[in-house]
Model the fold of this input.
Amino acid sequence: MDASADSASGTPDLQPLSDFLAANTKVPFPPGVYQPTAPAPALAAAAAGTLGPHGQAICSAEPGNGPGAVVGPIVPKWWTDAETQQMMELRETGMLWKDIATFMGRTEGSLRKKYHRCKPRGA
Done:
């Protein structure tokens, strides 16, 4: 048994949770109050005003990302007939998937999936 065991109950003395957390976290905080060490990316993006039209984070600061480049989670959204037609026309002009995705605020994967479901057979 541990040297710090309580002789009456036979259980070791436990350090209070607040003391443990204060000693083992980078940012001390008062007991009973949870404070993350950094804000969630979506909250930071919302605070900075860099959210796209569908609630996704927009990042143009990284190399290779133009304005409107999509990072982070995208809120699922139904395709309208006009959006589907626009996407099909842009792809037929030879526009790249990543450019269409940036333009429409969608992921490349969702564009390809929709395109292959909608394109005529044998095309």
Notes: Helices lie at 17-24, 41-48, 81-92, 97-104, 108-118.
